[in-house]
Amino acid sequence: MSLSSLLTPDAQLDLRGTPCPINFVRTKLCLEKMSPGGLLEVWLDSGEPIEQVPDSLTMAGYQVEQITDCISYFSLLVRRPVTA
Questions:
Q1: How high is the pLDDT of residue 2?
Q2: Confidence band (pLDDT; 50, 70, 90) for 1?
Q3: Cα separation of 50 and 20, whole Å?
Q4: CA dist., res. 10 & res. 48, Å (int)
Q5: Is residue 30 a contact partner of residue 40, using CB atoms and an 8 Å limit?
């Protein structure tokens, strides 16, 4: 079984064309609505969005599990932490 088959997102968010920091805010709001341990796939533009959003999510306590270059955009897999 491949790693990618274990990383099936629970939700998807298309933020192509959304500027910073709005794309980070929308990603964070979506993650906050998900169950602990939930996996969110986010589509981001190249440039500032893919450079800023993953680092901002990591600093906010979320786990960035995978970043995939899909040629015209980037797919980001982010997991909401399971709180103790």
A1: 47
A2: very low
A3: 10
A4: 26
A5: yes
Please write the tens of the pLDDT for every residue from 23-78. Answer: 999 999 999 999 999 999 999 999 999 999 999 999 999 999 999 999 999 999 99
CB 54 within 8 A of CB 64: yes
What CA–CA distance (Å, rounded) separates 42 from 37? Answer: 16
Buried b (16+ CB within 10 A) or exposed e, 28-47: bebbeeeeeebbbbbbbbee
Residue owning tokens 């997991």: 79
Q: Does domain 10-79 have CATH number 3.40.50.720?
A: no
